[in-house]
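Thread: "does anyone have the structure for this chain?"

Original post by V.I.:
We have the sequence but no experimental structure in hand. Need at least a predicted one for the grant figures.
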Amino acid sequence: MVRAEIPGVDPDKDVEITMADGFLHIHAERREKEEHKDNGNFRSEFRYGSFSRNIPLPDGVKEADIKASYTNGVLEVRAPLPDGAEPTTPKKLPITRG
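Reply from O.Q.:
Generated one for you, tokens below.
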């Protein structure tokens, strides 16, 4: 499962999820524009940002099994492991100093 907090986006227009070459690719972009006109004054504000992530998928994950949902600003993508697959345990690698 992958969870990403991306409040303020429209998942239908601003989020793209694809799968290719064993990777799940998530791209989201937010654009906001506010304009205020008051007593002859004009103020305009722009806020925008994007992010993109590539997450490696375990061997055997099928595109048809991947499900995505967006609730209260949180994108959740579920990719179930294939039958018989064992989740891998992270291994800490030593860091050498040069």
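V.I.: this helps a lot. The beta strands are 2-5, 15-20, 23-38, 41-56, 67-71, 74-78.
O.Q.: and Residues 2-78 form a domain with the Immunoglobulin-like fold (CATH 2.60.40.790).
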